[in-house]
What we know:
By secondary structure, the protein is of the alpha/beta class. It has helices spanning 4-15, 26-37, 61-65, 84-97, 112-122, 139-142, 146-151, 168-180, 199-210, 221-230, 237-240, 242-245, 255-260, 267-276, and strands at 17-21, 42-45, 68-73, 102-108, 127-133, 153-156, 162-163, 188-190, 197-198, 215-218. A 6-stranded parallel β-sheet has the order 2-1-3-4-5-8, sandwiched between helices. It has a two-stranded parallel ribbon with strand order 6-10. It has a two-stranded antiparallel sheet with strand order 7-9. Strand 4, helix 5 and strand 5 form a beta-alpha-beta unit. The chain is globular and about 50 Å long.
Amino acid sequence: MPNTQNNFTTSTTGHSTILVIGGTGKTGRRVAERLTARDFPVRVGSRSGEPPFVWEDPGTWDAILEGVRAVYVTYYPDLAFPGAAETVGAFARTAVAKGARRLVLLSGRGEEGARISEDKLKESGADWTVIRASWFAQNFSESFFHEPVLAGELALPTGDAVEAFVDADDIADVAVAALTDDRHIGKTYELSGPRLLSFHDIAAELSKATGRQITYIPVTVDEYRKALEDNGLPVEFADLFELISDGRNAHLVDGVEEALGRKPKDFADFARDAAATGVWNT
Length: 282
């Protein structure tokens, strides 16, 4: 049997580039770093990149796709948001027409709206892989939960519901495997961490890691939506908490082990490692 990973590596490093959309974000940055470390030529797709990439401006797509063989596709703010499926589908068709045969899509676990975007991408005729992940552990260190952790108070509309937070490093490892190894073509991987945690549990883990008291305060969705509005963030983010509060993802899945042959990283290990970087120092 031919070594498909080596075949792809040779053709990619010799003749083409892997495009990482959102290559400055939580998962995209990690994907780009891993690919670069393995000597794959990488192009980062972002508004500030050269050439720039803007989801809302199809006129920026051709240039960023020039000479690209594979694409890691992340969509901001979320695949389930209005208009996302049409935009992702149009981009996928453009990518294939420009010669990008392999598309790896970061999707949402339990998001029915995101499934439409997945289908649109598959209809492009690309060799596809879908990675479904829900809430990232790094949301507490690099994203919209960072400031609340620094303030010592997580006020969120999740009640006592549980979530299997997944580490962005695990997502990146699966994405890199899918971008570089033919064995992952046509696969859908659902990712989670190794255990279910409530936000009470999260607050306890963060308190232990930081050496400070982090408190979780349940609030209503309307209260959280108002807080988002006051801070200039999309109020639709409040609706995403339904992915936790209604229990649809309150079970573990084995996509990390299926794709990589190892267990996913635990939240406690993430919190310890993040705290060691000083990200939560006040």
